[in-house]
Design a protein that fits this description.
- This protein is of the alpha+beta class.
- The protein has a single domain, classed as Aminopeptidase, CATH 3.40.630.
- Helices cover 35% and strands 28% of the residues.
- It is built from six helices and seven strands.
- The chain has a seven-stranded mixed beta sheet, with helices on both faces.
- A hairpin with a 5-residue loop joins strand 2 and strand 3.
- The protein is globular, with a radius of gyration of 16 Å.
- The chain starts with 8 loop residues before the first strand and ends with a helix.
- The C terminus is likely disordered.
Length: 190
């Protein structure tokens, strides 16, 4: 889908992006997960501790972790995604998108689509053939992953801060086809 007048720039994240990434994570968690995870958890989110965590991730990305940011027309970071090797589970996927968040006021402008495509391209460049993403079953973002061609491949129940959360995994068994289709659909536009 084309969004006239919206410039989307995806680039590799660096240490200077840690605070912006933390802000996006805290804001989107509070917006998206209200009613899905305990209020005390959302209220207890700390931009300071998240910034430090993201500094570590960005500094120590030698483990193959990939982080990209989406910038709006004013070069402000409005979204980010993080991916790497699939965490150990019994599913036949070698890559995993760990996080993908876009500020609520910038959703629907193509940032999430471009970030997911960038993750798939980066995983493919690193030798990955397939990928999955876990999403809370009650999170409306699951429809985004379905629209992006994700196939529901697993569900699980996970304890989290005193509650049990239902999660769904969406998988893309062949990144090559997804990356090629994305390239043909988007051309060289930004």
């Amino acid at each position: 889908m084309c969004y006239p007048g919206v410039m989307v720039r995806i680039r590799a994240a660096d240490l200077s992006d840690a605070a912006a990434i933390a802000d996006i994570q805290v804001e989107t968690w509070r917006d998206t997960y209200a009613g899905l995870i305990p209020d005390r958890t959302l209220l207890g989110l700390s931009r300071t501790s998240h910034t430090e965590s993201w500094r570590r991730v960005l500094r120590d990305s030698r483990d193959g972790t990939i982080t990209r940011v989406a910038e709006g027309p004013d070069s402000r970071v409005v979204g980010f995604a993080n991916a790497g090797c699939a965490r150990p589970i019994n599913l036949p996927y070698d890559g995993e998108v760990y996080t993908l968040y876009v500020l609520p006021e910038h959703q629907g402008a193509g940032h999430g689509r471009r970030l997911l495509g960038a993750m798939f391209s980066a995983l493919r460049t690193a030798g990955g053939r397939s990928a999955l993403v876990w999403v809370l079953a009650g999170n409306p973002a699951r429809f985004f992953y379905e629209a992006m061609g994700g196939i529901l491949v697993a569900t699980r129940e996970e304890p989290f801060h005193g509650v049990v959360l239902s999660e769904c995994a969406y998988g893309w068994p062949d990144l090559r086809h997804h990356v090629e289709a994305r390239t043909q659909a988007s051309g060289s536009s930004g």
